[in-house]
Design goal:
Shape: globular
Helix content: 55-70%
Oligomer: single chain
Number of strands: 0
Length: about 100
C-alpha cells in the first residue's frame, strides 16, 4: 500500500524548469480570466518576481494591485521568446511602465 502511495505521488510530480520560462507565466496569465488556479499562479508569480526586483522606480502613489494588473496586461499581449525568464519578463514590463530616470 505504501508503495502505491509513493508511486502515485512520483507519477504526478513534474519538475518545473528553473528559472521559470516567461512562456509558463504567459500561458497562466492568458488563462487567468477563465481559471482560478491559473489566476492564482499568474498573480502569485508576478507578486514573487516584482517583490524580488532590485530596481524599483514605481511611484508610491501606484498600488501593488495596479502594478500587477499592468504587468499582466503587458505579458499577455504577445508570446515571449523561449529564452526569456519569467522574472526578466516581469522586470521588463515594470521598466516599460515605470522607467527609472
Amino acid at each position: 500500500f505504501l508503495g502505491l502511495i509513493l508511486f502515485s505521488h512520483a507519477a504526478h510530480a513534474a519538475k518545473i524548469d528553473t528559472p521559470m520560462p516567461a512562456l509558463h507565466l504567459y500561458s497562466a496569465c492568458l488563462e487567468a480570466q477563465r481559471n482560478e488556479y491559473a489566476r492564482g499562479f499568474c498573480d502569485g508569480s508576478i507578486d514573487a518576481f516584482y517583490s524580488s526586483t532590485k530596481v524599483w522606480c514605481v511611484p508610491s502613489t501606484v498600488s501593488h494591485g495596479e502594478v500587477k494588473q499592468y504587468v499582466r496586461a503587458v505579458l499577455v499581449k504577445k508570446a515571449p521568446p523561449i529564452s526569456l525568464s519569467a522574472s526578466d519578463a516581469v522586470a521588463n514590463a515594470i521598466q516599460l511602465g515605470w522607467p527609472c530616470l
